[in-house]
Structures are given as structure tokens and as C-alpha cells.
Amino acid sequence: MTMNTTRSACSAACLLAAVAIPLGAFETPTTAGSAPSGSSVISALWTDRGDVTSLDLLSGIGGKEHQPAGNFTFVKDEKEGTSPKFEVVDAQGVRWKAKLGEESKAEVAATRLVWAAGYFTDEDYYVARLHVDKMPKLSRGQQYVTEDGVVLGVRLERSVKGQKKTGNWSWFKNPYVGTRELNGLKVMMALINNWDLKEINNAVYSEKEGGVHYVVSDLGASFGETGNTITRSKSDPGDYSGTKFIQKVTKDHVDFYMDSRPFVLSAIDIPNYYTRTHMQDVVKSIPVEDARWLGQRLQLLSDEQLRDCFRGAGYSVGEVEEYTSVVRQRIKALSDL
Fold this sequence. Notes:
Layout: H1 3-20, H2 39-43, E1 72-78, E2 85-90, E3 95-99, H3 103-116, E4 124-133, E5 150-158, E6 164-168, H4 180-191, E7 202-206, E8 212-216, H5 237-241, E9 246-249, E10 253-256, H6 270-279, E11 286-287, H7 288-298, H8 303-311, H9 317-335
Parallel strand pairs: 1-4
Antiparallel strand pairs: 1-2, 2-3, 3-5, 4-5, 6-7, 7-8, 9-10, 10-11
Helix pairs in contact: 3-8, 4-7, 7-9, 8-9
């Protein structure tokens, strides 16, 4: 048998194996453990924000008092994840995790909108120019640092005192499966075009005051186009406005567009192929009434509040208007179901 024949046989065998293995076979077991039953389960995932029209989406979750300001000092480099990151501490002793690159704006806007819908998120802020004392050369992202040590285009995630990450949770195996609130969160992922729905991006936090919060802790792969490694994008208003939202509606259920399946040839990496393919199922077969419920809640937000989501994330005037228009159209589509 020649080398080329051997390679062809191997590729065919790998592809046949990929087809034969059921979806979810490579899903990492969740480390979240069990959540309490009853209403406390929902309170760990979602909360009623009360008068939604009064929410300050320009300042964000922590309000004006938590806005990053003053002097920052470098603490350490971070080498996890796809985006460059490092930690800093401010003059008050609060620690912040800085993220650089194309996710920095999208993640801030996404957290504001997801939080407004009633879900728990990280406390993120966008800083166009961050002055950092004792700034070394970074292992990643040095292109975002000026010669005089100013870091450009930074997402700062505030460290919450007493909060501790205790595990990750799966979209398909968690205490909320079948609830209106989890289905609403799935719809939110479709609404913002968050295509990176890996379990590792879902965190369980234990809180200082007791209890836990279930959070989508990385929303950076949003507001672009879903797709494979070549076609997908982040933080691209043109791509975002050019994508479709609702794929199919039946009497009882609605499917949303979410394209995350890799090229068939990449099925040689079977775990990754199925993890990425399985992500598409997150936004399928959503009960119509649950999708409508989310749309009706988001409909309470004014256009000015929607603009503030993107203003607070550092987008230009034109980008703010384009994003706001598309988000408003998607909210209306949900409400009209």
C-alpha cells in the first residue's frame, strides 16, 4: 500500500468515525454540581431587574461609582484563552483583568445587554487608553501598547471581592434545562451572535453573601458573523447586520441561526468537530412563548438605552447606530412571534 493510499484510508476512517459518534460524546462533564431546587434555582441564573427603563447601560453593571479610574499598576501576565490578557490593580486595591484585541468592545456591549435582560454577567468596562505603571513587555498583545506604556482599547473586568469560580456548566446538562429563563439566555446568544458557546466559557461563581450565580463568562465572540474559522467574525457591525436571525418557526418552537460547524475535513479532530457542531443546537427548538417572553422584556429598553450599550463599549457614532438598529429589529422579531 502506498503512502498516499494509507493517508486516504486514514482520512476516510476518521470521517466515518466522526459520523458514527453521537453528538455530545465529547462533552466535558460539568463541575457545577447540584443547585438547590425551586425558585432558588432560577435566582442563581436570572433576576427581575425591576424598572428596566431606568437601567444605566452607559455606566454599566457597577454604576458610575465602579468606573475604572486613577492609577493602575501591572500585576501579572495571563496566558490562558485566545485573547491577550493581563492583571492590574488600582489605587483602591481593586484587581482588574485586562483583555486586548477585537473582543474588548464586543464583550462590554454584550455584558450590558445580557445584564439588562436579567442575567448575571461579569462586570466589564471599556477604556480607550489605559495608563499602567511598571508595564513590562507582554507575552501577547504588545502591539496594543505604546512606547510610553499606554495600553490601547482595553476591556477591564472588575474582580468582585468574595466571589470565587467553582466550576463550569453545560448548556445541555444543568439545573435549568427546560426553564423559560435558560431558554431566554439561549435566545440572547442568538440575538448577539455569540458563536463561542463552549462549556469552558460558562462559569459558576460562589458569592460572598452566599448562593451561586450561573454566568456566561466570556461574551467576546459576539456582534459579528457566526460561522467556521474563516467566515466567523467578532465586533464587526457590517457582518452583524448582514446575518439572519430567525431560521424556522413552527406552532410551538423556533430555531435561530447559529453556524459553528468546522469544515468537514477538520473532522479528523473529532472532539473539536463535535463540540463546535453541537453548539448550533443551543439555539434550536426554543419554545415560542419563551422567545416571545424575552423579546417583550427587551422591548422595554429604549433606543437610547440600546445606544448606551455600544457607546459604553467605545464604538463610533456610526457603529452605535448600526448595532442599535439591528438589535431593535431582532427584539421586535421576538416580540412578534
